[in-house]
Fold this protein.
Amino acid sequence: MASRLYALFTRNPSTARVVVEQARLQPNDRVLEVGCGAGGAVDLAAQALGPDRVAAVDPSPTFVEMVSRRVPGADIRVAGAEDVPFDDQRFTVIFSVASMHHWDDRAAGLATLITKLAPGGRMLIAERLLKRPGHGITPAQLAEVEAELAELDQIGIHTVERKAGWRQLAIIRSTRPLAAA
């Protein structure tokens, strides 16, 4: 019941629009959203590319059921960032909108996602920018995530800040190299 109530208030949030715009989706992209929640970003990506080019995971079976109904044809599965059940190198774009702060093991989640990212693929991790730890990310935590991505051989790592409604978002962008580092 809590998931359904939450979904009423987050059905198509401005944060999803900002992140999907920042992903700069191309016609041949294959997209994965991690922690899809009520499915706003999944829906936007499916509108841009077609649902057969979009997949998502969320640990909540309720959200997975809701998003599967909201975006028929998209591949929506129950899983967390640490155990994404898709083939390696399948996706050209992976994004997470306001969910990384919920991951059980951030380092394991980032490592798993990079294995699912095709060479040259883009990853975007968006969180609400905070002054102190909570449901979002602080500048110190941003630096930690950027360092973890560098250790995982991601390139082009940088953070952009964008306004989404009343929220200030930090979007960490990185790219998987075309060849092994």
